[in-house]
Amino acid sequence: MSHAYYAEKQVAVAAVRRACALTSSVFNKLVRNETLTKDDKSPVTVGDFAAQAVVSTILSRTFPHDPIVGEEDASDLRADTGASLRERVVALATESLTAPLQPGEEESWGLGPSHKHTTEELLAAIDRGNYEGGRTGRMWTLDPIDGTKGFLRGEQYAVCLALVVDARVELGVIGCPNLPRDPASPSGPRGAVFVATRGYGAFQLPLAPAESLQPEEKATRLRIPAFAMDTLNLLESVEKAHAKLSFNERVARLLGVIRPPTRMDSQAKYAALARGDGGVYLRMPVGTGYKEKIWDHAPGSVLVEEAGGVISDSRGQPLDFGLGRTLGENFGVVAAGKAVHTKVIEAIQRAKEEEEKEEGQ
Ligand SMILES: Nc1ncnc2c1ncn2[C@@H]1O[C@H](COP(=O)(O)O)[C@@H](O)[C@H]1OP(=O)(O)O
Ligand SMILES: [Mg+2]
Ligand SMILES: [Mg+2]
Ligand SMILES: [Mg+2]
Q: Mind listing the UniProt keywords for this protein, alphabetically (predicted)?
Protein backbone atom coordinates (compact mmCIF):
# COMPACT_ATOMS: atom_id res chain seq x y z
CA MET A 1 0.00 0.00 0.00
CA SER A 2 1.32 3.40 -0.90
CA HIS A 3 0.70 6.28 1.48
CA ALA A 4 1.65 9.89 2.10
CA TYR A 5 5.40 10.47 2.12
CA TYR A 6 5.98 6.83 1.15
CA ALA A 7 8.88 7.67 -1.19
CA GLU A 8 10.42 9.90 1.50
CA LYS A 9 10.11 7.10 4.01
CA GLN A 10 11.86 4.56 1.77
CA VAL A 11 14.73 6.98 1.13
CA ALA A 12 15.03 8.09 4.75
CA VAL A 13 15.12 4.53 6.09
CA ALA A 14 17.75 3.52 3.52
CA ALA A 15 19.87 6.60 4.29
CA VAL A 16 19.69 6.01 8.04
CA ARG A 17 20.61 2.34 7.58
CA ARG A 18 23.69 3.27 5.52
CA ALA A 19 24.70 5.87 8.08
CA CYS A 20 24.26 3.32 10.90
CA ALA A 21 26.53 0.85 9.10
CA LEU A 22 29.09 3.63 8.75
CA THR A 23 28.98 4.70 12.40
CA SER A 24 29.20 1.08 13.58
CA SER A 25 32.27 0.59 11.44
CA VAL A 26 33.80 3.82 12.77
CA PHE A 27 33.23 2.53 16.28
CA ASN A 28 34.81 -0.84 15.52
CA LYS A 29 37.79 0.62 13.69
CA LEU A 30 38.50 3.69 15.76
CA VAL A 31 37.01 3.36 19.18
CA ARG A 32 37.33 -0.32 19.92
CA ASN A 33 40.67 -1.11 18.29
CA GLU A 34 42.68 2.06 18.44
CA THR A 35 44.47 3.34 21.45
CA LEU A 36 42.69 6.56 22.22
CA THR A 37 42.93 8.82 25.18
CA LYS A 38 39.74 9.03 27.14
CA ASP A 39 38.87 12.51 25.91
CA ASP A 40 39.79 11.96 22.27
CA LYS A 41 36.83 13.26 20.32
CA SER A 42 38.16 12.34 16.86
CA PRO A 43 36.22 9.11 16.19
CA VAL A 44 32.92 10.74 16.89
CA THR A 45 33.89 13.74 14.80
CA VAL A 46 34.82 11.57 11.85
CA GLY A 47 31.59 9.62 12.28
CA ASP A 48 29.40 12.75 12.57
CA PHE A 49 30.79 14.34 9.42
CA ALA A 50 30.85 11.17 7.32
CA ALA A 51 27.33 10.14 8.33
CA GLN A 52 26.01 13.63 7.54
CA ALA A 53 27.77 13.48 4.13
CA VAL A 54 26.11 10.14 3.34
CA VAL A 55 22.57 11.06 4.36
CA SER A 56 22.78 14.47 2.71
CA THR A 57 24.16 13.03 -0.54
CA ILE A 58 21.25 10.59 -0.74
CA LEU A 59 18.70 13.33 0.03
CA SER A 60 20.23 15.69 -2.52
CA ARG A 61 19.83 13.04 -5.24
CA THR A 62 16.31 12.08 -4.29
CA PHE A 63 14.81 15.38 -3.11
CA PRO A 64 17.15 18.00 -4.57
CA HIS A 65 14.99 20.98 -3.61
CA ASP A 66 14.57 20.11 0.05
CA PRO A 67 16.76 22.08 2.48
CA ILE A 68 18.38 20.33 5.45
CA VAL A 69 18.83 21.49 9.02
CA GLY A 70 21.80 19.33 9.98
CA GLU A 71 23.88 19.45 13.13
CA GLU A 72 27.28 19.61 11.41
CA ASP A 73 28.95 21.89 8.86
CA ALA A 74 32.17 21.39 6.93
CA SER A 75 34.10 24.51 7.94
CA ASP A 76 36.51 22.53 10.18
CA LEU A 77 37.13 20.14 7.29
CA ARG A 78 37.83 22.94 4.81
CA ALA A 79 40.45 24.54 7.06
CA ASP A 80 44.12 23.76 6.42
CA THR A 81 44.30 22.20 9.86
CA GLY A 82 41.48 19.84 8.88
CA ALA A 83 43.34 18.01 6.10
CA SER A 84 43.76 14.65 7.81
CA LEU A 85 40.26 14.71 9.28
CA ARG A 86 38.93 15.62 5.81
CA GLU A 87 40.71 12.67 4.22
CA ARG A 88 39.29 10.26 6.75
CA VAL A 89 35.77 11.64 6.33
CA VAL A 90 35.96 11.45 2.53
CA ALA A 91 37.27 7.88 2.66
CA LEU A 92 34.51 6.74 5.05
CA ALA A 93 31.69 8.49 3.21
CA THR A 94 32.91 7.13 -0.12
CA GLU A 95 33.16 3.61 1.28
CA SER A 96 29.60 3.87 2.54
CA LEU A 97 28.09 5.41 -0.62
CA THR A 98 29.81 2.98 -2.99
CA ALA A 99 28.81 -0.17 -1.08
CA PRO A 100 26.58 -2.47 -3.18
CA LEU A 101 22.93 -1.56 -3.61
CA GLN A 102 20.65 -3.01 -0.95
CA PRO A 103 17.05 -4.10 -1.41
CA GLY A 104 14.83 -1.04 -1.74
CA GLU A 105 17.67 1.26 -2.84
CA GLU A 106 18.09 2.69 -6.33
CA GLU A 107 21.20 3.55 -8.25
CA SER A 108 19.80 6.97 -9.12
CA TRP A 109 20.18 7.81 -5.43
CA GLY A 110 23.93 8.16 -6.06
CA LEU A 111 24.62 4.78 -4.49
CA GLY A 112 26.65 1.78 -5.56
CA PRO A 113 30.15 1.00 -6.80
CA SER A 114 29.91 2.96 -10.07
CA HIS A 115 29.44 6.35 -8.38
CA LYS A 116 32.30 8.79 -7.87
CA HIS A 117 32.04 11.38 -5.12
CA THR A 118 34.64 14.13 -5.11
CA THR A 119 35.90 15.71 -1.92
CA GLU A 120 34.18 18.96 -2.85
CA GLU A 121 30.86 17.19 -3.46
CA LEU A 122 31.03 15.50 -0.07
CA LEU A 123 31.95 18.73 1.74
CA ALA A 124 29.11 20.51 -0.08
CA ALA A 125 26.77 17.72 1.00
CA ILE A 126 27.77 18.30 4.64
CA ASP A 127 27.26 22.05 4.20
CA ARG A 128 23.77 21.53 2.83
CA GLY A 129 22.86 21.00 6.47
CA ASN A 130 23.22 24.70 7.18
CA TYR A 131 19.58 25.63 6.48
CA GLU A 132 18.20 27.97 9.12
CA GLY A 133 14.79 26.30 9.35
CA GLY A 134 11.51 28.16 9.69
CA ARG A 135 7.75 28.03 9.69
CA THR A 136 6.95 27.21 6.05
CA GLY A 137 7.86 24.68 3.40
CA ARG A 138 9.55 21.29 3.45
CA MET A 139 12.81 20.63 5.24
CA TRP A 140 14.73 17.70 6.62
CA THR A 141 16.45 17.76 9.97
CA LEU A 142 19.42 15.49 10.64
CA ASP A 143 21.50 14.46 13.63
CA PRO A 144 24.13 12.16 12.13
CA ILE A 145 25.19 10.86 15.55
CA ASP A 146 22.87 11.73 18.41
CA GLY A 147 24.28 10.81 21.82
CA THR A 148 27.95 11.23 21.07
CA LYS A 149 28.87 10.37 24.66
CA GLY A 150 26.98 7.09 24.38
CA PHE A 151 28.61 6.35 21.03
CA LEU A 152 32.08 6.68 22.58
CA ARG A 153 31.11 4.50 25.55
CA GLY A 154 29.79 1.79 23.22
CA GLU A 155 26.31 2.39 24.62
CA GLN A 156 23.24 3.95 23.05
CA TYR A 157 23.38 6.47 20.23
CA ALA A 158 21.15 7.10 17.23
CA VAL A 159 21.18 8.34 13.65
CA CYS A 160 18.15 10.64 13.44
CA LEU A 161 16.34 12.07 10.44
CA ALA A 162 12.96 13.80 10.12
CA LEU A 163 10.92 15.50 7.43
CA VAL A 164 9.21 18.68 8.61
CA VAL A 165 6.51 20.32 6.45
CA ASP A 166 5.14 23.71 7.45
CA ALA A 167 6.60 23.23 10.93
CA ARG A 168 4.87 19.88 11.43
CA VAL A 169 6.96 16.70 11.64
CA GLU A 170 5.51 14.32 9.03
CA LEU A 171 8.15 11.57 9.08
CA GLY A 172 10.75 10.47 11.59
CA VAL A 173 13.43 7.80 11.36
CA ILE A 174 15.71 6.81 14.25
CA GLY A 175 18.44 4.22 13.70
CA CYS A 176 19.71 2.61 16.91
CA PRO A 177 22.63 0.27 16.16
CA ASN A 178 23.16 -0.72 19.80
CA LEU A 179 19.59 -1.04 21.03
CA PRO A 180 18.42 -4.59 21.84
CA ARG A 181 15.80 -5.56 19.26
CA ASP A 182 13.65 -7.13 21.91
CA PRO A 183 13.46 -5.20 25.19
CA ALA A 184 12.62 -8.49 26.91
CA SER A 185 16.07 -9.88 26.03
CA PRO A 186 18.56 -7.11 26.73
CA SER A 187 21.53 -9.32 25.88
CA GLY A 188 19.98 -10.56 22.63
CA PRO A 189 20.60 -9.23 19.10
CA ARG A 190 21.02 -5.48 18.76
CA GLY A 191 20.16 -2.88 16.15
CA ALA A 192 16.80 -1.53 15.01
CA VAL A 193 15.30 1.28 12.97
CA PHE A 194 12.24 3.13 14.24
CA VAL A 195 10.03 4.87 11.71
CA ALA A 196 6.82 6.84 11.91
CA THR A 197 4.82 8.64 9.23
CA ARG A 198 2.11 10.95 10.55
CA GLY A 199 -1.23 9.22 10.38
CA TYR A 200 0.25 5.80 9.54
CA GLY A 201 1.65 4.55 12.82
CA ALA A 202 5.01 3.87 14.44
CA PHE A 203 7.09 0.83 13.55
CA GLN A 204 10.26 -0.99 14.47
CA LEU A 205 12.19 -2.48 11.55
CA PRO A 206 15.38 -4.52 11.43
CA LEU A 207 18.58 -2.54 11.02
CA ALA A 208 20.03 -4.69 8.25
CA PRO A 209 18.38 -3.98 4.88
CA ALA A 210 18.91 -7.55 3.67
CA GLU A 211 16.44 -8.66 6.30
CA SER A 212 13.73 -6.39 5.02
CA LEU A 213 12.83 -7.48 1.53
CA GLN A 214 9.21 -7.15 2.54
CA PRO A 215 9.35 -4.27 5.01
CA GLU A 216 5.62 -4.44 5.70
CA GLU A 217 5.98 -8.03 6.90
CA LYS A 218 9.10 -7.39 8.91
CA ALA A 219 7.82 -4.29 10.65
CA THR A 220 6.47 -4.41 14.20
CA ARG A 221 3.79 -1.85 15.00
CA LEU A 222 4.45 0.05 18.22
CA ARG A 223 1.89 1.21 20.78
CA ILE A 224 2.63 2.77 24.15
CA PRO A 225 0.89 0.51 26.69
CA ALA A 226 -1.20 1.76 29.59
CA PHE A 227 0.89 2.06 32.75
CA ALA A 228 0.02 1.95 36.42
CA MET A 229 2.30 4.04 38.61
CA ASP A 230 3.91 0.92 40.08
CA THR A 231 5.01 -0.35 36.64
CA LEU A 232 6.08 3.03 35.31
CA ASN A 233 9.60 4.38 35.15
CA LEU A 234 11.33 7.44 33.74
CA LEU A 235 13.60 7.56 30.71
CA GLU A 236 16.31 10.15 31.18
CA SER A 237 19.75 11.33 30.05
CA VAL A 238 22.95 9.75 31.26
CA GLU A 239 24.66 13.14 31.16
CA LYS A 240 23.90 15.41 34.11
CA ALA A 241 24.80 18.44 31.99
CA HIS A 242 21.93 17.69 29.57
CA ALA A 243 19.01 17.38 31.95
CA LYS A 244 18.19 18.21 35.57
CA LEU A 245 18.03 14.70 36.99
CA SER A 246 17.32 15.87 40.55
CA PHE A 247 14.07 17.37 39.27
CA ASN A 248 13.17 14.04 37.63
CA GLU A 249 13.61 12.36 41.00
CA ARG A 250 11.22 14.82 42.59
CA VAL A 251 8.63 14.31 39.84
CA ALA A 252 8.93 10.53 40.13
CA ARG A 253 8.34 10.71 43.88
CA LEU A 254 5.29 12.96 43.46
CA LEU A 255 3.88 10.57 40.87
CA GLY A 256 4.41 7.57 43.11
CA VAL A 257 6.82 5.93 40.69
CA ILE A 258 8.63 3.02 42.34
CA ARG A 259 10.90 1.69 39.64
CA PRO A 260 14.29 3.36 39.17
CA PRO A 261 14.83 5.47 36.02
CA THR A 262 16.39 4.10 32.85
CA ARG A 263 19.33 6.26 31.84
CA MET A 264 20.10 6.13 28.17
CA ASP A 265 21.85 8.45 25.72
CA SER A 266 20.22 9.83 22.57
CA GLN A 267 16.77 9.60 20.99
CA ALA A 268 16.89 5.86 21.68
CA LYS A 269 14.88 7.02 24.71
CA TYR A 270 11.99 7.97 22.42
CA ALA A 271 12.25 4.56 20.73
CA ALA A 272 12.16 2.83 24.12
CA LEU A 273 9.11 4.87 25.12
CA ALA A 274 7.29 4.08 21.86
CA ARG A 275 7.63 0.36 22.49
CA GLY A 276 6.63 0.53 26.14
CA ASP A 277 10.09 0.06 27.56
CA GLY A 278 9.84 2.90 30.08
CA GLY A 279 6.81 5.14 30.44
CA VAL A 280 7.95 8.78 30.59
CA TYR A 281 10.61 10.76 28.74
CA LEU A 282 11.45 13.71 30.95
CA ARG A 283 14.08 16.32 30.14
CA MET A 284 14.24 19.50 32.18
CA PRO A 285 16.78 22.23 31.45
CA VAL A 286 19.77 22.51 33.78
CA GLY A 287 19.49 26.27 33.66
CA THR A 288 22.44 27.19 31.48
CA GLY A 289 20.45 28.86 28.72
CA TYR A 290 20.91 25.90 26.37
CA LYS A 291 18.30 25.80 23.61
CA GLU A 292 17.16 22.36 22.47
CA LYS A 293 17.84 21.66 18.79
CA ILE A 294 15.10 20.55 16.42
CA TRP A 295 17.12 17.52 15.24
CA ASP A 296 17.27 16.24 18.81
CA HIS A 297 13.46 15.96 19.08
CA ALA A 298 11.74 16.04 15.68
CA PRO A 299 12.05 12.32 14.82
CA GLY A 300 11.27 11.26 18.39
CA SER A 301 8.20 13.49 18.58
CA VAL A 302 6.39 11.92 15.62
CA LEU A 303 7.42 8.44 16.74
CA VAL A 304 5.86 9.01 20.16
CA GLU A 305 2.70 10.58 18.74
CA GLU A 306 2.21 7.78 16.24
CA ALA A 307 2.67 5.25 19.03
CA GLY A 308 -0.34 6.90 20.72
CA GLY A 309 1.56 9.19 23.06
CA VAL A 310 1.77 12.91 23.72
CA ILE A 311 4.82 15.17 23.64
CA SER A 312 5.00 18.73 24.93
CA ASP A 313 7.17 21.08 26.91
CA SER A 314 7.02 20.99 30.71
CA ARG A 315 4.02 23.37 30.70
CA GLY A 316 2.05 21.14 28.37
CA GLN A 317 2.62 23.40 25.34
CA PRO A 318 3.41 21.79 21.98
CA LEU A 319 7.04 21.78 20.78
CA ASP A 320 7.47 24.34 18.00
CA PHE A 321 9.56 23.09 15.07
CA GLY A 322 8.97 26.32 13.12
CA LEU A 323 11.24 28.64 15.08
CA GLY A 324 14.48 27.85 13.28
CA ARG A 325 17.29 25.48 14.26
CA THR A 326 16.21 25.43 17.91
CA LEU A 327 12.97 24.96 19.81
CA GLY A 328 13.38 28.43 21.28
CA GLU A 329 13.32 29.18 24.99
CA ASN A 330 13.86 25.95 26.88
CA PHE A 331 10.91 24.72 28.95
CA GLY A 332 11.97 21.09 28.81
CA VAL A 333 10.41 18.11 27.09
CA VAL A 334 7.82 15.62 28.39
CA ALA A 335 6.64 12.60 26.41
CA ALA A 336 4.40 9.75 27.59
CA GLY A 337 1.20 7.87 26.94
CA LYS A 338 -1.87 10.16 27.05
CA ALA A 339 -3.10 9.43 30.57
CA VAL A 340 0.38 9.42 32.08
CA HIS A 341 1.33 12.64 30.28
CA THR A 342 -1.46 14.58 31.99
CA LYS A 343 -0.32 13.29 35.39
CA VAL A 344 3.31 14.18 34.66
CA ILE A 345 2.46 17.76 33.72
CA GLU A 346 0.56 18.11 37.02
CA ALA A 347 3.44 16.57 38.96
CA ILE A 348 5.93 18.94 37.31
CA GLN A 349 3.82 21.89 38.47
CA ARG A 350 3.82 20.56 42.03
CA ALA A 351 7.54 19.78 41.85
CA LYS A 352 8.28 23.36 40.79
CA GLU A 353 6.24 24.72 43.71
CA GLU A 354 8.03 22.38 46.10
CA GLU A 355 11.40 23.43 44.75
CA GLU A 356 10.55 27.13 45.00
CA LYS A 357 9.47 26.69 48.62
CA GLU A 358 12.68 24.89 49.52
CA GLU A 359 14.80 27.48 47.75
CA GLY A 360 12.93 30.29 49.52
CA GLN A 361 13.68 28.85 52.95
N1 LIG B 1 23.35 21.68 28.05
C2 LIG B 1 22.62 20.83 27.35
N3 LIG B 1 21.32 20.62 27.67
C4 LIG B 1 20.59 19.75 26.98
N5 LIG B 1 21.06 19.02 25.94
C6 LIG B 1 22.33 19.17 25.56
C7 LIG B 1 23.18 20.06 26.25
N8 LIG B 1 24.39 20.02 25.67
C9 LIG B 1 24.31 19.15 24.66
N10 LIG B 1 23.06 18.62 24.58
C11 LIG B 1 22.55 17.67 23.61
O12 LIG B 1 21.79 16.64 24.19
C13 LIG B 1 21.77 15.55 23.28
C14 LIG B 1 22.01 14.26 23.99
O15 LIG B 1 21.03 14.14 24.97
P16 LIG B 1 20.98 12.89 25.90
O17 LIG B 1 21.78 13.26 27.11
O18 LIG B 1 19.54 12.73 26.15
O19 LIG B 1 21.59 11.77 25.15
C20 LIG B 1 22.83 15.77 22.28
O21 LIG B 1 22.26 16.11 21.06
C22 LIG B 1 23.62 16.91 22.89
O23 LIG B 1 24.20 17.70 21.93
P24 LIG B 1 25.63 17.26 21.32
O25 LIG B 1 25.40 16.06 20.45
O26 LIG B 1 26.05 18.42 20.52
O27 LIG B 1 26.53 16.91 22.49
MG1 LIG C 1 21.89 15.19 19.24
MG1 LIG D 1 24.92 14.77 17.04
MG1 LIG E 1 27.11 17.13 18.70
A: Hydrolase, Magnesium, Metal-binding
